[in-house]
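Subject: Re: docking follow-up (pyridoxal-5'-phosphate)

Dear J.,

Thanks for your patience while I sorted out the input files. As discussed at Tuesday's group meeting, I've set up the holo structure prediction with pyridoxal-5'-phosphate included as the bound ligand rather than trying to dock it afterwards. The sequence and the ligand SMILES I used are pasted below, so you can double-check that they match what you have on your end before we go further.
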Amino acid sequence: MITHEKAIENLDKVITQVEFSRLQVSDHCIVQLVAVSKYSTVEEIKILYKAGQRAFGENKVQDLKDKSIALDDTPLSWHFIGSLQKNKINNLIDLNPTLMHSLDSLDLAQELDKKLKAKGKTMNCLLQVNSANEDSKSGVNPNDAVAIYKEISEKYSNIHLKGVMSIGAHSEDKTIIKQSFETTKSIFDKCEGATICSMGMSSDYSLAILCGSNMIRVGSALFK
Ligand SMILES: *Cc1c(COP(=O)(O)O)cnc(C)c1O
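The structure tokens for the complex came back this morning:
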């Protein structure tokens, strides 16, 4: 388990690196840090909370439920970042996540909107784009992303689309990862009303920020 000292050290390192990268973009560029706690325990989340972190991300609805209930008296904001199975939609709605990053098809949007309406609720979401064009990754095809974003915004009024999310290309080659981030950023720029561009993980968040990310999802660099 991570110690309090190690958590502070990790958080300092990430924040320093984020500062360095975002200042290369602009003084006005603000980057939000979501700590991905999917491989971490409730105790470890508490340690990072004490070190100052407030936003956490989980990729399974059940884990989000268990951890947010266990940490009910701690003022955290919870992000959902994983593939959402249709039979888990109602469970996720009941957990009131701050932001759902992984709306990855029109089909899911239709189903989610229907269930939100039935409960009289809304949800902040990001459209996940498969900018790396990898079969292993979820997300809409980058060529269709702007049109799908518009369609969801217009048709599904209980979904509040706030922007886009991508996972960088799975590659050792920085130019390939960069290309995938640039693809997402150009889609983000074309989506009307979009304010959040969620991209960058432990291994590539600096590059993501340089490409225009304003929300990074970092797990292992914080918790290990
Ligand atoms: C696990 C995960 C992350 C964090 O990955 P790390 O490499 O541990 O920083 C970010 N985004 C998504 C969608 C994830 O599933």
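A couple of observations from a first look. Residues 169 and 177 are 5 Å apart (CA to CA). The mean pLDDT is 97.

Let me know if you'd like me to rerun anything.

Best regards,
T.
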